[in-house]
UniProtKB/TrEMBL annotation:
InterPro entries: Alkaline_phosphatase_core_sf, LtaS-like, OpgB/LTA_synthase_biosynth, Sulfatase_N
Protein's recorded name: Sulfatase
Coiled coil ranges: none
Major localisation: membrane
PANTHER family in the record: LIPOTEICHOIC ACID SYNTHASE, PHOSPHOGLYCEROL TRANSFERASE I
Topology in the lipid bilayer: Multi-pass membrane protein
Keyword list, A-Z: Cell membrane, Manganese, Membrane, Metal-binding, Transmembrane, Transmembrane helix
Amino acid sequence: MLFKSMLTWFVVFDDGPSWAILITELPFAWLIFGLIEMFASKRKLIYYVIADAALTGILFSVFMYHKYYGVIATWQALQQVNQVTAVSNSVFSLMDPYYTLIFLDIIVITYLLIRRRKELLKPVRIQRPERSRRNVAFAGVVVLSFSLSLFNILPNRASMNEHTKAEDMGILNYEAYALLDAGIEEDLLDPEEVTQDRIDELKGVQQPSTPAYFGSAKGKNVIIVQMESFQNFLIGLEMDGQEVTPNLNKLARESLYFDNFYQMVGQGNTSDAEFVVNTSFYVPEKGAAAKTYFYKNVPSLPKLLKQQGGYESATFHTNVVDFWNRRELYKAVGFDTFYDQKYFGKDNSVYFGSDDEVLYAKTLDKLKEMDSSANPFYAQVISMTAHHPFTLTPETPELKKLPLPEKYEDNSVGDYLRAQNYADYAFGQFVEGLKGAGLWEDTLLVVYGDHQGMPLYSLDTKEKELMQDISGREYDFSEMTNVPLIMSLPGVTESRTISTLSGQVDVLPTVANLTGASLNDQIHFGQDLLNSGEENIIPQRYYLPSGSFLNGSSLYIPGVGYEDGTRYSLHKDQPANGSSEDEYNRALELLRLSDSYMTALPEHGGALPKEQAAK
């Protein structure tokens, strides 16, 4: 167990293990093994193997989850193990051969049990006086171990940073704490206290009397394209003089381009991005939004546009709709129709479903049908081909269109660039299709990245150096969470780069302003990026520890509390400063307001959106 703990700490914590794990990790194992000694008189070795396998499974899950998400997994995250099979190629791509050593003792002991089971499982007869002394001794071990575990847990409960908390408590103690803490109710507010004035005050928003661009897209179609794993450093990036994403570069040059825009997703990843953009609420503290809020009657963009503009809404995704509970999410958010794998089929399948070219081509067919209606439409399109581990497939070499310098071969950075180059190519075809169908001039097009593609915790030393070469600065958390936002309304939006701090929660109010939809009666935590000035606060969850937030100049990540936190500059060659304890408290209060309001929302009780299959 000491060896297994050391291996886990090597993977999870920057400084690796220290002798402190003798106090933080081993007592939990002693506690379990002491109980076995006290109460198992027969087949003791089998109980040891079961306990060993359980503790090993927890440690293995923790470091594999950390390699993929950068998060210390708890029982809530491990409840989603059914999602792992769908991303198994991503998980296995992060495996190092030495990780399997964590199972070595289980394999050896199980083999011995099978070969020598009669000898090893033979009951050991112990005289009653000796048994009594043994039980007293092991009771002492259990009490001491339990006391040491409490000693590690209790003083560290107040730590804001889950990563720091797990390091100080010990991973096994932290897992036990997380399990027990799940039964403690959140400190929520009365929903009557959640007002738009309070939200705007915390964020520093001042609404202009005459907002710019208001109603510029009134009556126009709205298409929102969510780009899988698309980070902002890709915009304008060239490799040996060749643009990696020429089509999105062109769109950014000709449109409103928000280069200081950040992801706000949680455990649900892509589905959380869909939720945040369509609702302007924050993701829940624990779990995916689609699993936590699916039964709620959620205020949303589809409902707003339908109520005030008569919009028909549809969402397009080549995966099966039940992945991340999207069927129920779309019901809660209020989409009229969804198109999933049943409609797109499995032609040119990559990872979850058909490739992006199929996605855009078949989506365009439906958009033409929707455009024939008297009412405008709102369509959200979810691209998926550029999904981790970005290798596309050996069967689809034609998707790998980008030549790269040799140093980018056979590593995740090069794979990522090629995958995003293909995603851009397919998106370019979609734009040309919109123009050819006569939809371009009559559409507000919004494009954004859903979440990071190059997580720090998954990169080896060489890959981090390549990322530093690309970005021209140390690749850190601020660079990792920076994704692009582009808004284009031909004939209305000029070519402009807007560097106001912004996040996915700000998309809904900005689109509402452009389409002339009033938000006076709808609670929202974002702000209209075309009228809100320079001030903004972006609270973060899950991928960054609780209490993390962005302001105009830096990303702040807490330690045990505010005082020992770390700041990362949002801008190249500028120091990280400007964050204050007041902003930290305001960010936490915004999250509390969102949690309180969402928890108090009534159940929707509505019908599922229409499911469309290929005809």
